[in-house]
Amino acid sequence: MAGAGILQDIPKMIKLTEKVIKSTSLPVTVKTRLGWDENTLNIEEVAERLQDIGIKALSIHGRTRKQMYKGEADWTLIGKVKNNPRIHIPIFGNGDIDSPQKALEYKNRYGVDGIMIGRASIGYPWIFRDIKHFFNYGTILEAPQIEERVEVARKHLMKSIEWKGERIGIVEMRRHYTNYFRDLPGIKDFRARLVSEMDPSNLHCLLDEIKEHYQESSQLV
After folding, report:
1. Which of 107, 139, 156, 209 has a CA between 20 and 30 Å from the CA of residue 168?
2. Sign (positive/negative) of CA torsion 91, 96, 97, 102?
């Protein structure tokens, strides 16, 4: 019953959250989904009950647990929670925000206090910078240059190894390379080498090779 599983027992969810709130002087926030499945879309009730016991903000993912990440996120219930006259805590929306334009559109349409972004930032942490710029100036920033892509990927690799150890850190990093270097012509061969290499030194050399290759390519264009 961990994680979203607790949505199958709302009284227990409220009881557990209340005990957390009472155990700390720090503000407690909650992130949850619309419900366990299409028959339990009870987020409006859940939001009120969580607010009543003292949470300070609520983030809502616009899918049920049963949906996982399939189908389109339904923001209509997120909007209903935000516009419920009983709700006064900040409400953050989550699900399918993958561009600055969509972030602004959904924030305006549903009135949420903010946007939470998950999958769209995997391998592309620049999305937060892009969104802030679009909100402030209404223009789209250029994609990061190869030097920045490589250095951020390198830092990510080093942190992954530092956190998880060499083997797991390298393996878990593999899923991120596609997004770090997406849209680069001819990246497929480099990516194949990145996801098969287990030596950190060789990976750093390969990242240098990628940078040099695309620097030279841009000079030829």
Report:
1. 209
2. negative
Q: What is the mean pLDDT of the chain?
A: 94
**Does residue 126 sit in the same domain as residue 150?**
no
Count of structural domains, the chain: 2
> What does the angle CA 72 – CA 78 – CA 83 come to, to the nearest 5 degrees?
150
Please check whether residues 132 and 173 belong to one and the same domain: no
Q: Are residues 101 and 132 in the same domain?
A: yes
The reported pTM is: 0.85
Strand order in the sheet with 114-116: 29-33, 57-61, 91-94, 114-116
Residues spanned by the domain of 152: 146-220
52 and 102 belong to one structural domain: yes
The tens digit of pLDDT for each residue in 12-55 reads: 999 999 999 999 999 999 999 999 999 889 999 999 999 999 99
Q: Hunting for tokens 């996982």 — which residue is that?
A: 68
